[in-house]
Protein backbone atom coordinates (compact mmCIF):
# COMPACT_ATOMS: atom_id res chain seq x y z
CA UNK A 1 0.00 0.00 0.00
CA UNK A 2 1.33 3.45 -0.79
CA UNK A 3 1.13 6.35 1.59
CA UNK A 4 -1.02 9.38 0.67
CA UNK A 5 0.41 12.90 0.69
CA UNK A 6 -1.53 13.92 3.80
CA UNK A 7 -0.32 10.92 5.76
CA UNK A 8 3.24 11.43 4.54
CA UNK A 9 3.15 15.07 5.63
CA UNK A 10 1.70 14.17 9.02
CA UNK A 11 4.34 11.51 9.50
CA UNK A 12 7.25 13.73 8.57
CA UNK A 13 5.92 16.56 10.78
CA UNK A 14 5.68 14.11 13.63
CA UNK A 15 9.17 12.78 13.00
CA UNK A 16 10.51 16.33 12.97
CA UNK A 17 8.85 17.62 16.12
CA UNK A 18 8.71 14.59 18.33
CA UNK A 19 11.32 14.38 21.06
CA UNK A 20 11.30 10.94 22.70
CA UNK A 21 11.95 11.83 26.31
CA UNK A 22 9.90 10.75 29.21
CA UNK A 23 9.84 11.52 32.92
CA UNK A 24 8.09 9.16 35.24
CA UNK A 25 7.12 9.35 38.85
CA UNK A 26 9.15 7.28 41.25
CA UNK A 27 8.77 3.53 40.83
CA UNK A 28 6.14 1.61 42.68
CA UNK A 29 7.08 -1.89 41.71
CA UNK A 30 6.40 -3.77 44.88
CA UNK A 31 3.47 -6.13 44.57
CA UNK A 32 0.63 -4.81 46.63
CA UNK A 33 -2.12 -6.88 48.07
CA UNK A 34 -5.36 -5.19 47.28
CA UNK A 35 -7.54 -3.74 49.99
CA UNK A 36 -10.83 -2.63 48.59
CA UNK A 37 -12.09 0.80 49.42
CA UNK A 38 -15.37 0.81 51.25
CA UNK A 39 -16.87 2.88 48.46
CA UNK A 40 -16.20 1.12 45.19
CA UNK A 41 -15.57 3.07 42.02
CA UNK A 42 -16.37 1.67 38.63
CA UNK A 43 -14.66 3.01 35.56
CA UNK A 44 -16.36 3.95 32.38
CA UNK A 45 -15.60 0.66 30.65
CA UNK A 46 -17.53 -1.30 33.25
CA UNK A 47 -20.46 1.02 33.37
CA UNK A 48 -23.42 1.12 31.03
CA UNK A 49 -21.59 3.75 28.95
CA UNK A 50 -20.46 1.88 25.87
CA UNK A 51 -18.16 3.12 23.14
CA UNK A 52 -19.03 2.72 19.50
CA UNK A 53 -16.49 -0.13 19.41
CA UNK A 54 -18.32 -1.96 22.16
CA UNK A 55 -21.65 -1.48 20.49
CA UNK A 56 -20.27 -3.01 17.34
CA UNK A 57 -17.85 -5.61 18.59
CA UNK A 58 -17.79 -7.37 15.19
CA UNK A 59 -16.32 -4.22 13.68
CA UNK A 60 -13.81 -3.98 16.52
CA UNK A 61 -12.72 -7.60 16.00
CA UNK A 62 -12.32 -7.06 12.28
CA UNK A 63 -10.27 -3.92 12.93
CA UNK A 64 -8.01 -5.74 15.41
CA UNK A 65 -7.49 -8.66 13.04
CA UNK A 66 -6.65 -6.36 10.12
CA UNK A 67 -4.40 -4.17 12.25
CA UNK A 68 -2.28 -7.15 13.33
CA UNK A 69 -2.46 -8.84 9.93
CA UNK A 70 -0.98 -5.67 8.48
CA UNK A 71 1.51 -4.64 11.15
CA UNK A 72 2.93 -7.90 12.56
CA UNK A 73 5.47 -8.39 9.76
CA UNK A 74 7.10 -4.99 10.22
CA UNK A 75 7.12 -5.42 13.99
CA UNK A 76 8.80 -8.81 13.74
CA UNK A 77 11.27 -7.47 11.22
CA UNK A 78 12.47 -4.74 13.56
CA UNK A 79 11.64 -5.98 17.06
CA UNK A 80 11.38 -9.76 16.81
CA UNK A 81 8.65 -12.11 17.98
CA UNK A 82 7.61 -10.42 21.25
CA UNK A 83 4.91 -7.83 20.67
CA UNK A 84 4.89 -6.33 24.14
CA UNK A 85 6.66 -3.76 26.29
CA UNK A 86 10.10 -4.41 27.69
CA UNK A 87 10.84 -4.23 31.41
CA UNK A 88 13.60 -1.66 32.03
CA UNK A 89 15.18 -0.38 35.19
CA UNK A 90 14.05 3.25 35.51
CA UNK A 91 16.60 5.85 34.42
CA UNK A 92 18.88 3.24 32.87
CA UNK A 93 20.08 4.21 29.43
CA UNK A 94 19.12 1.36 27.19
CA UNK A 95 20.77 0.48 23.92
CA UNK A 96 18.53 -0.76 21.15
CA UNK A 97 20.10 -4.22 21.29
CA UNK A 98 18.90 -4.61 24.88
CA UNK A 99 15.23 -4.41 24.02
CA UNK A 100 14.74 -8.08 23.32
CA UNK A 101 16.35 -8.81 26.69
CA UNK A 102 13.95 -6.29 28.24
CA UNK A 103 10.98 -8.09 26.67
CA UNK A 104 12.18 -11.40 28.07
CA UNK A 105 12.66 -9.67 31.43
CA UNK A 106 9.00 -8.64 31.25
CA UNK A 107 8.00 -12.30 31.00
CA UNK A 108 10.38 -13.31 33.78
CA UNK A 109 9.25 -10.50 36.10
CA UNK A 110 5.60 -11.39 35.47
CA UNK A 111 6.26 -15.03 36.38
CA UNK A 112 8.18 -13.98 39.47
CA UNK A 113 5.44 -11.56 40.52
CA UNK A 114 2.87 -14.34 40.25
CA UNK A 115 5.21 -16.70 42.17
CA UNK A 116 5.12 -19.27 39.39
CA UNK A 117 8.72 -20.28 40.13
CA UNK A 118 8.48 -21.06 43.74
CA UNK A 119 7.94 -24.78 43.51
CA UNK A 120 9.31 -26.54 40.39
CA UNK A 121 7.01 -29.50 41.03
CA UNK A 122 4.14 -27.08 40.43
CA UNK A 123 5.43 -25.65 37.16
CA UNK A 124 2.67 -25.43 34.56
CA UNK A 125 2.30 -28.27 32.08
CA UNK A 126 -0.47 -26.71 30.06
CA UNK A 127 -0.57 -23.03 29.11
CA UNK A 128 -3.00 -20.86 27.19
CA UNK A 129 -1.59 -17.68 25.64
CA UNK A 130 -4.60 -15.40 25.24
CA UNK A 131 -3.90 -12.83 22.52
CA UNK A 132 -0.71 -14.59 21.47
CA UNK A 133 0.66 -12.34 18.72
CA UNK A 134 3.17 -14.40 16.77
CA UNK A 135 3.78 -16.70 19.72
CA UNK A 136 6.88 -15.28 21.41
CA UNK A 137 5.54 -15.86 24.94
CA UNK A 138 4.21 -19.34 24.15
CA UNK A 139 7.53 -20.57 22.79
CA UNK A 140 9.46 -19.02 25.66
CA UNK A 141 7.16 -20.49 28.32
CA UNK A 142 6.93 -23.90 26.63
CA UNK A 143 10.73 -24.15 26.53
CA UNK A 144 11.16 -22.87 30.05
CA UNK A 145 8.69 -25.20 31.69
CA UNK A 146 8.74 -28.08 29.22
CA UNK A 147 5.03 -27.33 28.89
CA UNK A 148 2.48 -27.42 26.08
CA UNK A 149 1.00 -24.10 25.06
CA UNK A 150 -1.93 -23.10 22.88
CA UNK A 151 -2.13 -19.52 21.64
CA UNK A 152 -5.17 -17.68 20.33
CA UNK A 153 -5.31 -14.48 18.31
CA UNK A 154 -7.84 -12.72 16.11
CA UNK A 155 -5.28 -12.34 13.32
CA UNK A 156 -4.99 -15.20 10.79
CA UNK A 157 -1.62 -13.81 9.66
CA UNK A 158 -0.30 -13.97 13.24
CA UNK A 159 -1.61 -17.52 13.83
CA UNK A 160 0.02 -18.75 10.61
CA UNK A 161 3.31 -17.01 11.36
CA UNK A 162 3.31 -18.26 14.96
CA UNK A 163 2.84 -21.85 13.77
CA UNK A 164 5.55 -21.45 11.10
CA UNK A 165 8.09 -20.01 13.56
CA UNK A 166 7.35 -22.78 16.05
CA UNK A 167 7.77 -25.50 13.45
CA UNK A 168 11.04 -23.92 12.29
CA UNK A 169 12.28 -23.96 15.89
CA UNK A 170 11.31 -27.61 16.41
CA UNK A 171 8.47 -26.75 18.77
CA UNK A 172 5.50 -27.87 16.66
CA UNK A 173 4.68 -30.67 19.10
CA UNK A 174 4.74 -28.28 22.07
CA UNK A 175 2.96 -25.15 20.86
CA UNK A 176 0.14 -24.40 18.48
CA UNK A 177 -1.82 -21.35 17.48
CA UNK A 178 -5.27 -20.71 16.16
CA UNK A 179 -7.67 -17.91 15.37
CA UNK A 180 -10.16 -17.67 18.22
CA UNK A 181 -11.90 -15.07 20.34
CA UNK A 182 -10.66 -14.61 23.90
CA UNK A 183 -14.23 -13.78 24.91
CA UNK A 184 -15.47 -17.15 23.68
CA UNK A 185 -12.53 -19.50 23.97
CA UNK A 186 -12.75 -22.88 22.22
CA UNK A 187 -11.51 -24.78 25.29
CA UNK A 188 -13.23 -26.84 27.98
CA UNK A 189 -13.44 -25.63 31.56
CA UNK A 190 -10.39 -26.10 33.77
CA UNK A 191 -7.91 -27.04 31.01
CA UNK A 192 -4.82 -24.91 31.73
CA UNK A 193 -2.31 -24.64 34.60
CA UNK A 194 -1.17 -21.19 33.47
CA UNK A 195 -3.46 -18.64 31.85
CA UNK A 196 -1.32 -15.95 30.26
CA UNK A 197 -2.53 -12.68 28.80
CA UNK A 198 0.31 -10.37 27.83
CA UNK A 199 -1.02 -7.04 26.50
CA UNK A 200 -4.26 -8.26 25.01
CA UNK A 201 -6.74 -7.23 27.73
CA UNK A 202 -6.80 -3.65 26.46
CA UNK A 203 -8.44 -4.92 23.25
CA UNK A 204 -11.31 -6.63 25.06
CA UNK A 205 -14.63 -4.80 24.79
CA UNK A 206 -16.18 -6.72 27.69
CA UNK A 207 -13.69 -6.98 30.56
CA UNK A 208 -16.05 -9.03 32.75
CA UNK A 209 -16.46 -11.63 30.01
CA UNK A 210 -12.73 -11.59 29.34
CA UNK A 211 -11.83 -12.24 32.98
CA UNK A 212 -14.65 -14.78 33.22
CA UNK A 213 -13.19 -16.74 30.31
CA UNK A 214 -9.68 -16.62 31.81
CA UNK A 215 -11.08 -18.04 35.04
CA UNK A 216 -13.21 -20.63 33.27
CA UNK A 217 -10.36 -22.23 31.29
CA UNK A 218 -8.03 -22.16 34.33
CA UNK A 219 -7.59 -25.50 36.10
CA UNK A 220 -8.12 -25.66 39.87
CA UNK A 221 -4.97 -24.15 41.42
CA UNK A 222 -3.92 -22.54 38.11
CA UNK A 223 -2.20 -19.15 37.96
CA UNK A 224 -3.75 -16.34 35.91
CA UNK A 225 -1.45 -13.53 34.75
CA UNK A 226 -2.83 -10.40 33.11
CA UNK A 227 -0.39 -7.72 31.95
CA UNK A 228 -2.31 -4.89 30.39
CA UNK A 229 -2.83 -1.19 29.76
CA UNK A 230 -5.16 0.46 32.26
CA UNK A 231 -6.18 3.99 33.05
CA UNK A 232 -5.41 5.36 36.51
CA UNK A 233 -7.59 4.33 39.43
CA UNK A 234 -10.31 6.85 40.18
CA UNK A 235 -10.22 8.84 43.41
CA UNK A 236 -13.04 8.22 45.87
CA UNK A 237 -14.47 11.62 44.95
CA UNK A 238 -14.48 10.94 41.19
CA UNK A 239 -17.26 9.43 39.11
CA UNK A 240 -15.20 9.27 35.92
CA UNK A 241 -11.99 10.41 34.26
CA UNK A 242 -11.59 14.06 33.36
CA UNK A 243 -12.75 15.14 29.88
CA UNK A 244 -9.16 15.74 28.67
CA UNK A 245 -8.23 12.23 29.84
CA UNK A 246 -11.20 10.67 28.04
CA UNK A 247 -10.23 12.60 24.90
CA UNK A 248 -6.63 11.42 24.97
CA UNK A 249 -7.68 7.79 25.49
CA UNK A 250 -10.22 8.06 22.70
CA UNK A 251 -7.53 9.13 20.25
CA UNK A 252 -5.39 6.15 21.31
CA UNK A 253 -8.39 3.81 21.04
CA UNK A 254 -9.07 4.93 17.49
CA UNK A 255 -5.48 4.24 16.44
CA UNK A 256 -4.98 0.88 18.14
CA UNK A 257 -8.45 -0.65 17.87
CA UNK A 258 -9.17 -0.47 21.57
CA UNK A 259 -12.54 -0.24 23.30
CA UNK A 260 -12.99 1.83 26.48
CA UNK A 261 -10.32 1.30 29.14
CA UNK A 262 -10.69 0.35 32.76
CA UNK A 263 -8.51 0.74 35.84
CA UNK A 264 -6.38 -1.80 37.68
CA UNK A 265 -8.84 -1.58 40.57
CA UNK A 266 -11.63 -2.58 38.18
CA UNK A 267 -9.71 -5.73 37.22
CA UNK A 268 -9.13 -6.56 40.85
CA UNK A 269 -12.84 -6.16 41.60
CA UNK A 270 -13.70 -8.46 38.71
CA UNK A 271 -11.29 -11.14 39.94
CA UNK A 272 -12.68 -10.80 43.46
CA UNK A 273 -16.21 -11.18 42.17
CA UNK A 274 -15.17 -14.59 40.78
CA UNK A 275 -13.73 -15.62 44.17
CA UNK A 276 -10.22 -15.97 42.76
CA UNK A 277 -7.42 -16.13 45.33
CA UNK A 278 -4.06 -14.45 46.04
CA UNK A 279 -5.05 -11.43 43.96
CA UNK A 280 -2.11 -9.07 43.52
CA UNK A 281 -1.52 -6.06 41.33
CA UNK A 282 1.18 -3.49 40.68
CA UNK A 283 1.80 -0.44 38.56
CA UNK A 284 4.80 -1.18 36.36
CA UNK A 285 4.59 2.08 34.40
CA UNK A 286 8.02 3.26 35.60
CA UNK A 287 9.56 0.03 34.34
CA UNK A 288 8.29 0.46 30.79
CA UNK A 289 9.24 4.12 30.43
CA UNK A 290 11.98 3.41 27.91
CA UNK A 291 9.76 1.37 25.62
CA UNK A 292 7.79 3.84 23.49
CA UNK A 293 10.73 6.21 22.98
CA UNK A 294 12.70 3.16 21.78
CA UNK A 295 9.93 2.11 19.38
CA UNK A 296 9.84 5.65 18.03
CA UNK A 297 13.62 5.67 17.61
CA UNK A 298 13.38 2.42 15.65
CA UNK A 299 10.73 4.00 13.40
CA UNK A 300 13.15 6.85 12.74
CA UNK A 301 15.78 4.56 11.25
CA UNK A 302 15.83 4.17 7.48
CA UNK A 303 14.72 0.54 7.76
CA UNK A 304 11.90 1.50 10.15
CA UNK A 305 10.76 4.39 8.02
CA UNK A 306 10.70 2.50 4.72
CA UNK A 307 9.06 -0.56 6.29
CA UNK A 308 6.40 1.68 7.76
CA UNK A 309 5.69 3.31 4.43
CA UNK A 310 5.22 -0.12 2.87
CA UNK A 311 3.11 -1.55 5.67
CA UNK A 312 -0.22 0.19 5.22
CA UNK A 313 -2.40 2.92 6.65
CA UNK A 314 -3.47 1.15 9.84
CA UNK A 315 0.17 0.67 10.84
CA UNK A 316 1.05 4.26 9.99
CA UNK A 317 -1.91 5.48 12.05
CA UNK A 318 -0.65 3.36 14.93
CA UNK A 319 2.84 4.83 14.57
CA UNK A 320 1.47 8.36 14.61
CA UNK A 321 -0.28 7.62 17.91
CA UNK A 322 2.89 6.53 19.73
CA UNK A 323 3.56 9.99 21.24
CA UNK A 324 0.04 9.90 22.70
CA UNK A 325 0.99 6.81 24.71
CA UNK A 326 4.00 8.64 26.08
CA UNK A 327 1.83 11.64 26.92
CA UNK A 328 -0.64 9.35 28.72
CA UNK A 329 2.12 7.79 30.83
CA UNK A 330 3.73 11.16 31.55
CA UNK A 331 0.44 12.62 32.74
CA UNK A 332 -0.15 9.64 35.02
CA UNK A 333 -3.27 8.68 33.08
CA UNK A 334 -2.03 5.41 31.53
CA UNK A 335 -0.86 2.64 33.82
CA UNK A 336 1.03 -0.44 32.75
CA UNK A 337 -0.55 -2.94 35.10
CA UNK A 338 0.10 -6.49 36.19
CA UNK A 339 -2.72 -8.34 37.90
CA UNK A 340 -2.31 -11.96 39.00
CA UNK A 341 -4.34 -14.50 40.94
CA UNK A 342 -4.92 -18.18 41.49
CA UNK A 343 -8.01 -20.27 40.90
CA UNK A 344 -9.05 -22.06 44.09
CA UNK A 345 -8.28 -25.80 44.18
C1 LIG B 1 -0.13 -6.33 21.43
S1 LIG B 1 -0.48 -7.92 20.80
C2 LIG B 1 0.30 -8.91 22.08
C3 LIG B 1 0.81 -10.20 21.51
C4 LIG B 1 1.50 -11.15 22.46
N1 LIG B 1 0.77 -11.36 23.69
C5 LIG B 1 2.91 -10.76 22.78
O1 LIG B 1 3.17 -10.32 23.91
O2 LIG B 1 3.77 -10.88 21.91
C6 LIG B 1 -2.22 -8.11 21.14
C7 LIG B 1 -2.78 -9.46 20.74
O3 LIG B 1 -4.11 -9.60 21.27
C8 LIG B 1 -4.89 -10.27 20.30
N2 LIG B 1 -6.32 -10.05 20.56
C9 LIG B 1 -6.96 -8.87 20.70
N3 LIG B 1 -8.26 -9.10 20.93
C10 LIG B 1 -8.45 -10.45 20.95
C11 LIG B 1 -9.56 -11.28 21.13
N4 LIG B 1 -10.79 -10.81 21.35
N5 LIG B 1 -9.36 -12.62 21.06
C12 LIG B 1 -8.12 -13.15 20.85
N6 LIG B 1 -7.03 -12.38 20.66
C13 LIG B 1 -7.19 -11.05 20.71
C14 LIG B 1 -4.42 -9.71 18.99
O4 LIG B 1 -4.85 -10.50 17.91
C15 LIG B 1 -2.90 -9.71 19.24
O5 LIG B 1 -2.38 -10.98 18.94
How would you describe this protein?
The chain has 345 residues and is α/β, with parallel strands linked by helices. It has one domain: 3-Layer(aba) Sandwich (Rossmann fold), CATH 3.40.50. It is built from 13 helices and 8 strands. It has helices at 5-17, 52-55, 57-79, 99-113, 136-145, 156-168, 207-217, 243-256, 264-273, 291-300, 302-311, 313-320, 322-330; strands spanning 32-33, 126-130, 148-153, 175-179, 192-198, 218-231, 277-283, 334-342. It has an 8-stranded mixed sheet with strand order 1-7-8-6-5-2-3-4, with helices on both faces. Helix 5 (136-145) links the parallel strand 2 and strand 3. Helix 10 (291-300) packs antiparallel against helix 13 (322-330). The longest helix has 23 residues, at 57-79. The protein is globular. The chain starts with a helix and ends with a strand. Residues 1-50 have low confidence and may be disordered. S-adenosylmethionine binds at residues 64, 68, 82-84, 131-133, 136-137, 152-155, 158, 181-183, 198-200, 203-204. GO terms for molecular function: S-adenosylmethionine-dependent methyltransferase activity. This is Gamma-tocopherol methyltransferase. Residues 190-198 are annotated as: SAM motif II.
Amino acid sequence: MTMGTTTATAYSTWLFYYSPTCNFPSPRLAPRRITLRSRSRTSTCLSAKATSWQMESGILQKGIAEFYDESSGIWEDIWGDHMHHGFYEPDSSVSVSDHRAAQIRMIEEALRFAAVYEDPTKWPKTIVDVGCGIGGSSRYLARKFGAKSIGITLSPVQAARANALSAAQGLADKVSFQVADALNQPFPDGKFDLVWSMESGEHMPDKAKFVGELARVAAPGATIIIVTWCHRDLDPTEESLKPWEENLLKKICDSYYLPAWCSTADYVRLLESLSLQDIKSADWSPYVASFWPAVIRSALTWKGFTSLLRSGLKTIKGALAMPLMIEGYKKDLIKFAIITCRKPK
